Task: inverse folding
């Protein structure tokens, strides 16, 4: 084999190792160096060194350990050089050099702990929710600031600033790099799950803009969910991953080839992803068998009931109403009540559902929520109360922000005039 | 590391507390002081008189301007503070969460700036980070 080929192969290995290991190496470097910025710089330097040396010296037996040690060395070296201008950095360099971190911290288990520490630190409740999301996507998923800004329709400069501030707060307020103890774990895990859920939701149903879904964010959220399940298989972590997979499985059915929104009832179920559904169902069962059932697991069970129905007409609405009852007790909210009302309408008829929806709207809680008005409009339409249906569609249209959703409502209104009820023909 | 726990509460709400509840609250505060002294977190703590006794002092162009406080129309006012020693923010949050007023109002936890931060590069970095 020629030298050029060997070198090319080593560069390919560096690329592969970067994709599979860079987040793990970063998580450990943050622990060893005690600083996000320093660790990111060290990660960069370590991979630069790998690109130089691996083609020449060969790929090390344990690339991860090599990178961690190279990164740590480069960081200490850099601090020493800068210490000429700022004496306090010299002291930090000496301290880091004297304490190489527990050697045990570099094995599989130690690295898994570091990744978990990173998750809990990025999702620390003392950071602003937007900062938790940005920092999680940047550090754990390795997305660039520009990618995150694009996904959230934010200015890259503003997003970069948010990340800088979050890292400064972690350093200056001394947010520890640790997995919370048993007493704090449930509350802290809730924050982590919520961050993942928000990322998924933004990807699944972007709050504004042209496209119905932003696929990348959903994919990242599912990756995060998998990582969490792998590191900390708590029932609600399983439940959230199941919920995301069962929703994601319907993606291909949610939009027509022309980009229009297709509601659950009208979706072509043969387009649903069977593999994701099977995985989701398995996770729901695992979560249920723990007997510690939380809101994500119940929502996943509702999604599973839909996924398990071969046709819309075969949906087990009685089971779904029962699950919404459980959810409403665990996590009371008007949105849960609204969803329950729609399920009741399917089980007992539109009249029963409408009474519940009107009750919720009467309390003024979902007055600004377009789906409440859209649900009311659908129920009125099914009852033949055309004028009321029209008024509610108009109200929904005034509140909907996403183009495909707006077009769906407009089509509904046109069909109301034409006296048709199906939406299958675009 | 030192943290200042600033206690914010609604003075009207506190003023309206029936006597036995007020006494119970004061008792709780004294107990908590004692507990923090024993655990080594305590540096100092004080309660403030009502915001109606506050005065705001400013010097502009060498001229003293004194005015009646408060200058912000907020529902909750600064009512007192604990200065504590804690390992990190998580420990400080633990301590703050058990200050009796955390149930009634809110406690703002602020890390104290170390002398080296005042002199060193962190300080200049922090204050130039405006939008």
Result:
């Amino acid at each position: 084999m020629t030298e050029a080929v060997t070198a090319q192969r080593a560069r390919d290995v560096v690329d592969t190792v970067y994709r599979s290991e860079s987040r793990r190496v970063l998580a450990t470097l943050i622990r060893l160096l005690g600083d996000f910025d320093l660790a990111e710089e060290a990660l960069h330097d370590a991979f630069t060194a790998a690109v130089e040396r691996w083609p020449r010296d060969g790929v090390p037996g344990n690339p991860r350990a090599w990178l961690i040690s190279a990164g740590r060395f480069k960081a200490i070296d850099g601090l020493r050089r800068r210490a000429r201008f700022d004496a306090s950095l010299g002291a930090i360099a000496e301290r880091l050099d004297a304490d190489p971190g527990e050697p045990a911290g570099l094995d599989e288990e130690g690295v898994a702990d570091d990744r978990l520490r990173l998750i809990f630190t990025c999702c620390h409740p003392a950071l602003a929710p937007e900062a938790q999301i940005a920092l999680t996507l940047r550090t754990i998923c390795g997305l660039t600031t520009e990618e995150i800004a694009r996904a959230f329709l934010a200015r890259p400069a503003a997003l970069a600033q948010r990340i800088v501030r979050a890292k400064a707060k972690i350093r200056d307020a001394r947010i520890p790099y640790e997995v919370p103890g048993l007493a704090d774990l449930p509350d802290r895990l809730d924050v982590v799950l919520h961050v993942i859920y928000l990322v998924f939701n933004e990807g699944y149903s972007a709050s504004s803009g042209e496209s119905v879904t932003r696929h990348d964010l959903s994919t990242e959220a599912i990756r995060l969910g998998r990582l969490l399940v792998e590191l900390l298989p708590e029932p609600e972590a399983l439940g959230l991953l199941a919920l995301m997979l069962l929703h994601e499985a319907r993606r291909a059915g949610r939009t027509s080839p022309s980009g229009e929104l297709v509601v659950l009832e009208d979706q072509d179920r043969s387009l649903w992803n069977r593999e994701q559904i099977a995985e989701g169902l398995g996770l729901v069962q695992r979560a249920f068998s723990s007997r510690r059932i939380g809101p994500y697991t119940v929502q996943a069970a509702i999604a599973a009931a839909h996924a398990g129905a071969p046709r819309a007409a075969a949906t087990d609405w009685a089971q779904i109403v029962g699950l919404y009852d459980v959810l409403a007790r665990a996590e009371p909210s008007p949105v849960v009540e609204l969803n329950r009302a729609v399920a009741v309408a399917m089980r007992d008829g539109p009249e029963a559902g409408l009474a519940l929806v009107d009750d919720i709207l009467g309390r003024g809680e979902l007055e600004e929520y377009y789906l409440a008005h859209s649900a009311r409009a659908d129920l009125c339409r099914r009852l033949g109360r055309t004028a009321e249906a029209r008024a509610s569609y108009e109200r929904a249209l005034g509140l909907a922000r996403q183009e495909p959703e707006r077009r769906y409502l407009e089509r509904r209104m046109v069909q109301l005039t034409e006296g048709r009820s199906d939406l299958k023909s675009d | 590391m030192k943290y200042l726990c600033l206690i914010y509460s609604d003075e009207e709400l506190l003023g309206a507390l029936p006597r036995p509840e007020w006494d119970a609250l004061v008792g709780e505060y004294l107990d908590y002081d004692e507990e923090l002294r024993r655990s080594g977190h305590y540096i100092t703590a004080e309660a403030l008189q009502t915001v109606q006794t506050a005065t705001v002092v400013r010097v502009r162009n060498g001229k003293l301007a004194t005015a009646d406080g408060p200058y912000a129309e907020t529902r909750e006012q600064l009512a007192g503070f604990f200065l504590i020693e804690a390992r990190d923010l998580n420990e400080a949050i633990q301590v703050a969460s058990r200050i009796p007023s955390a149930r009634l109002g809110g406690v703002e936890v602020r890390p104290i700036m170390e002398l080296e931060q005042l002199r060193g590069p962190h300080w200049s970095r922090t204050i130039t980070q405006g939008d």
Notes: Residues 80 and 87 of chain A are 9 Å apart (CA to CA). Chain A touches chain B through 17 residues (CB under 8 Å). The mean pLDDT of chain A is 89.
